[in-house]
Structure formats: structure tokens, C-alpha cells
Amino acid sequence: MAYGLALGGRPKLCIKCGYHSLNKQPSLLCLHVHHRLNLPISHYKDPISHSFNILSQFPPKSATKMHYLKTT
Question: Side-chain half-sphere of 63: how many Cα atoms within 13 Å?
Fold first, then answer.
């Protein structure tokens, strides 16, 4: 079996299937992260980084947008 390293330096298996190593790519596939984020597997190797990168890096300048974001 393949093992990955997690905190503490001990080998860890995937928490869902118990087979894959707890590395980034096998965990993303096993936990169906692409499906949960509604992203195609073929286009994005790392859907979590992609999702964070599309977020706005600057606060909204419009007062109406700021009010809308505070109320939702």
C-alpha cells in the first residue's frame, strides 16, 4: 500500500477509501473535490487552488456592494 505523510511525520492512508496515500492529487480524486466544486477534472489539476484564485483579492469599492455582502 502507498502511504503519504501527514502531521507528525507518520504515514497516513486516505480517510475515505483507506487505500490511497494522503497526498494531494490522490486525495482530490478520492474525495471527488472536482465534482463538489462543479469543475471538470480535465481542465483543473488543483480545483482548490483554482477556486481560491478566482476570488476577489480586493474589497469592493461600491457602498451598495459592501452593504450587499454584509447582509448576505
Answer: 0
Contacts of 10 (CB under 8 A, 6+ apart): none
- Contact criterion met (CB below 8 Å) for 48 and 28: yes
Cell, residue 4: 503519504
Q: Do 24 and 46 contact (CB within 8 A), yes or no? A: yes
What does pLDDT average to in each consecutive run of 10 residues of the chain (72 residues)? 53 72 76 84 82 79 80 74
Q: Tens of pLDDT along 34-53?
A: 888 888 888 878 888 888 88
CA dist 2 and 12 (Å) reads 9
Q: What is the total count of domains within the chain?
A: 1
48, three cell numbers: 482548490
Instruction: Quote the domain boundaries for residue 53.
Output: 4-71
